[in-house]
Amino acid sequence: MDVPKKADRSDGAPRLHRGIPDGGETQVAALYWEAFGRKLGGALGPPAKGRAFLASHLHRDRGIAALDGAGRVIGVAGYDLAGRALFGGSARDVLSGYGLLGGVPRIALLALFTRRPAEGELVMDGICVAASHRGTGIGSLLLRETAAVAAENACTRIRLDVIDTNPRARALYVRHGFGAVHTRQTPFLRKPMGFGAVTTMHRAVTPDDLSGGTP
Ligand SMILES: CC(C)(COP(=O)(O)OP(=O)(O)OC[C@H]1O[C@@H](n2cnc3c(N)ncnc32)[C@H](O)[C@@H]1OP(=O)(O)O)[C@@H](O)C(=O)NCCC(=O)NCCS
């Protein structure tokens, strides 16, 4: 489903790309680590190893990329649809990559991030924009395009999780129609991962979403 798609900007850049472009795995892994390294470090660190693990277990058909004029990935929205997420990697892969002793606790940590979609649901699997490009509308484009993917796949709802230390991202989601449905307190994660609560948000998918991130 690698269909290039133009973003709604008059200068022609950035543009959205359905699917992660062939060869973009390393760039996506680097962006994810830049954005979520604190959260992922315990499970997949050290950083170079974690980025390599993410890149080699990436499902290109489960992401939307924002590309700059040179074709570099400057933003990505991953999603889980029908049980297939942007990042794969089974328990066996973790054990073979990190060894038996190191692998078992990592598998337990990774289980905390696993969010299976319910029937008719698309679950967002991380959205991030390169730090140098934030605040310019790329995240909004990616959210709209994710809603288009949900609508095209006959989903009725989008679900995501946001942590308590990220109020700006939460405000962005509210502006895009998401509402909080419940908050899980996670004080045991404050020290290892830097956050103490996770809020799940939902947004209904409507026929208007079919137009996505394009004008
Ligand atoms: C959240 C994120 C994807 C938004 O992408 P973006 O391209 O900056 O989004 P837009 O330009 O469309 O909208 C900007 C809004 O995003 C939100 N935002 C969240 N974190 C931000 C940041 N570090 N810089 C700028 N805006 C941020 C704000 O609501 C901002 O609007 P405001 O400054 O007027 O309040 C991006 O900031 C990012 O990658 N953050 C780090 C990773 C992350 O937190 N992902 C979400 C996990 S739930």
From TrEMBL:
Its EC number is 2.3.1.-. Residues 1-14 have a biased composition (Basic and acidic residues). InterPro entries: Acyl_CoA_acyltransferase (IPR016181), GNAT_dom (IPR000182), YpeA/RimI_acetyltransf (IPR050680). The keyword Acyltransferase applies. Residues 1-22 are annotated as: Disordered. The keyword Acyltransferase applies. GO terms for molecular function: acyltransferase activity. Pfam families: Acetyltransf_1. This is GNAT family N-acetyltransferase. Gene3D superfamilies: 3.40.630.30. Residues 15-198 form the N-acetyltransferase domain. It comes from Streptomyces ramulosus. Keywords: Acyltransferase, Transferase. It is an enzyme of class 2 (transferase). Signal peptide: none annotated.
